[in-house]
Amino acid sequence: MEPTQKYSIKAFAAFVLVILTMSGSALAQKAAKSTKPPKPAAESPEPDPDKGLKPPSGPSFYIASIEGSKGMFSVLLGNGNTTVAGSFTERQIEVFEAVLVAAKEFAQTDEAVGKSAPITTRLMDQHEWSLFVDVSKVGDRSKLYVTLITPDGKLTAEAGEIVRGSKKEPSALLLKMLSQVQEAKTAAPRP
Fold first, then answer.
1. Quick one: which of 3, 33, 129, 184 has the most CB atoms within 10 Å?
2. Using CA atoms, how far apart are residues 111 and 106, in angstroms rounded to an integer?
3. Residue 15 — pLDDT band, cuts 50, 70, 90?
4. 154-175: average pLDDT
5. Are 87 and 65 a contacting pair, CB within 8 Å?
6. Nearby residues of 106 by Cβ (< 8 Å), 6 or more positions away
7. Which pTM value belongs to this model?
8. What is the dihedral of CA 188, 157, 123, 160, to 10 degrees?
9. Within 13 A of 82's CA, how many CA atoms are on the CB side?
10. Stronger pLDDT, 50 or 157, i.e. the higher one
11. What are the beta bridge partners of residue 156?
């Protein structure tokens, strides 16, 4: 080996040793600095309950066509605490719509009304039991309950109340459900 080559290997080894020593002390200093308590983060203000989105706190309903599956719909029913969801064919959705229409019409009649105790009537298709509506009538009020049955479970949710004979337009969840079912059918891609 030549003397200059020997010198450059020794110089290189010394240089590496110096670098390792310096990086070790830098790491030690960094570790010492990190033991200091972190600066308190600026606390975010509490959300204003009068602004922004609020999660549903009562009964809810959702329906939409399933993308990539022509003639299939996703339906979700919630009662404020739990939800149940399932996939349904276009034929089943047509039956659901018919049951909802019949329930709306029946709720607005004076047929099968209890005077002091409610009389409950169940409206459902004889072949499709996945969705049915119970209408409980007493006096001039019709209370509506929707039940959805899927492989994941069964759930009944209050769907509002209709006051018969009132000039005020009813705003029961059942009416919104009917509207959503009709909109979903219209918006679904046709085969």
1. 184
2. 7
3. very low
4. 88
5. no
6. 121, 123, 135, 142
7. 0.68
8. -90
9. 8
10. 157
11. 147
For residue 166, CA distances in Å to 36, 38, 40, 117, 142 come to 70, 64, 59, 21, 12
Q: Can you tell me the distance from the alpha carbon of 51 to that of 34, in angstroms, rounded to the nearest whole number? A: 39
- Sheet with 60-65: list strands edge to edge: 60-65, 72-78, 83-89
Q: Do 100 and 174 touch, CB atoms closer than 8 A?
A: yes
pLDDT of residue 78: 95
Are residues 79 and 157 in contact, defined by beta-carbon separation less than 8 angstroms?
yes
The residue behind tokens 């209408």 is 135
Sign of CA dihedral 37, 42, 47, 52: negative
Q: Measured between alpha carbons, how far is 156 from 146 in angstroms, rounded to an integer?
A: 6
Which tokens sit at 40? 């308190």
